[in-house]
Write a structure and sequence with these properties.
This protein is of the alpha/beta class. Helices cover 51% and strands 12% of the residues. It contains 15 helices and eleven strands. Strands 1, 2, 3, 4, 9, 10 and 11 form a seven-stranded mixed sheet that branches. Strands 6-7-5-8 form a four-stranded mixed sheet. The chain is rod-shaped, with a radius of gyration of 41 Å.
């Protein structure tokens, strides 16, 4: 304890020698330093990336849900928990993201949106895949969508992009779908497929968002079930702004059975990863890293490296996604583990502004204090110089000498009350010597007759 007290006294003595005992300067330094440190700490902890996010997927057992599970596994390796929210599909995901005080951070949304939907408050991290529409039907082969008029069709579950796209394409073709309560009651693609196989309905429109794995294979392996080819695909694309054309080569699904029996053209909107603009940049990078791993490889209906991509449709592309695709992740996140890179990036973000603010501030405080001391001393010089001119410019009377001596004495008394740090003592002593010098000259001046 005595050693600590000794160090404290030495430190306090150095501070007094540099800054003096001015409470104004001391309080100013404390307030500035405390404000900067508190602001820095608030930024440090407030800017930390979240440790968990919520992802809107799709129905359980659908490809959307399975894909969300893959995102969950990859982000878990970086210490970020993904809470998968089971939904009815793309349209339901969009509505949940747009809801006031939405608790959903990111979700899968197809590029085919309901008309007049305001999505200005959402951002796209990019397209992660194409979502082809498969139309399986019974009976003779069909060439045009208009041939499905008056057919018993299941178009997809409520709240799904599947249903919205199916209805949109039928509307473009001029086919009115008469709702059948029995068909509408089929809640899942599995139920609809069973009804098709039992000849209870004529056609089903399905997408991967609502289709369990293996269901499409089950359907195309049946010789009495056909896959519709959009021979007018280019015309449909021109009538919409969100579709692309996919060609399924002959035999792609099953070379042995030669399924499909000929090149088949499908229409597909793109699937986008949609988030709020407030999504943390570090989480955005993690999601896009995961997207590269999950969607970047070649598949039956995509080329290697085709996804993820910055295909802009109805949603504005996130600036963070643009930066990621142009230059990749930042050096820290590309070099160090996520948790360490996050800590280091925030630390640098705190240290640099603190240094930029505190170093000039700390340099300025001694300058301001020195100016204050010099101002106080120079103020006395401002009184001493006119008095000195009066002494040297004309002979003085006895009364005038007494008056001037009294002024000098008052000045000296006032100066004796000035307290300055040791570092500025020479200036005070110099002032006293100058007063003494003027007094000696005043005493030696010839009195006026």
């Amino acid at each position: 304890m005595p050693l600590i007290s000794q160090y404290f006294i030495q430190y306090r003595t150095r501070l007094y020698a540099t800054f003096g005992r001015s409470m104004v300067i001391a309080f100013l330094a404390i307030i500035v330093t405390t404000s900067v440190l508190v602001s820095s700490l608030m930024f440090f902890f407030g800017s930390a990336p979240p440790t968990s996010i919520s992802m809107a997927s799709g129905p359980k057992e659908s490809s959307y849900y399975r894909t969300a599970q893959r995102y969950k596994d990859l982000l878990a390796k970086q210490g970020v928990k993904v809470n998968i929210i089971e939904t009815d599909g793309s349209i339901d995901n969009l509505q949940r993201l747009l809801a006031p005080n939405s608790k959903i951070d990111v979700g899968f949304v197809q590029s085919n949106l309901p008309p007049n939907t305001d999505v200005s408050k959402l951002m796209s991290l990019g397209s992660i895949s194409n979502q082809p529409l498969f139309i399986f039907y019974r009976g003779k082969r069909k060439t045009f969508l208009t041939e499905f008029a008056n057919q018993r069709m299941w178009l997809g579950p409520d709240g799904s992009g599947n249903l919205f796209l199916s209805e949109s394409l039928l509307n473009i073709a001029g086919v009115k779908n008469v709702e059948n309560p029995a068909i509408k009651a089929l809640d899942t693609a599995e139920q609809a497929a069973d009804a098709l196989l039992k000849d209870e309905i004529d056609a089903i429109f399905i997408m991967s968002e609502s289709t369990p794995s293996g269901l499409i294979k089950k359907l195309y392996s049946r010789p009495d079930i056909h896959l519709f080819s959009f021979d007018q695909a280019d015309a449909y694309i021109r009538n919409s702004k969100y579709l692309s054309k996919l060609t399924v080569p002959e035999g792609l699904f099953d070379l042995k059975l030669n399924v499909p029996v000929q090149d088949t053209v499908l229409l597909a909107p793109s699937l986008e990863l949609i988030a709020h603009p407030t999504l943390h940049p570090a989480i955005s990078d993690l999601l896009l890293d995961a997207a590269k791993t999950i969607h970047g490889r070649a598949g039956r209906l995509r080329n290697a490296g085709e996804f993820p991509s910055l295909q802009e449709h109805a949603f504005e592309i996130s600036p963070e996604a643009t930066r990621y695709f142009q230059s990749g992740k930042g050096y820290l996140y590309a070099t160090f583990p996520f948790w360490l890179a996050s800590w280091m990036s925030r630390l640098l973000a705190v240290i640099l502004p603190v240094l930029l603010l505190l170093i000039p501030a700390l340099k300025m405080i001694p300058s301001l204090y020195r100016w204050r001391i010099e101002f106080r001393i120079n103020r006395w010089y401002g009184l001493l110089q006119p008095l000195e001119r009066d002494i040297f410019q004309q002979p003085i009377s006895s009364d005038k000498r007494i008056e001037l001596l009294e002024h000098l004495n008052q000045m000296e008394a006032g100066i004796n009350n000035i307290k300055v740090p040791t570092a500025y003592a020479s200036q005070l002593y110099g002032l006293r010597e100058h007063i003494s010098f003027v007094r000696q000259h005043l005493m030696g001046r010839t009195l006026a007759l």
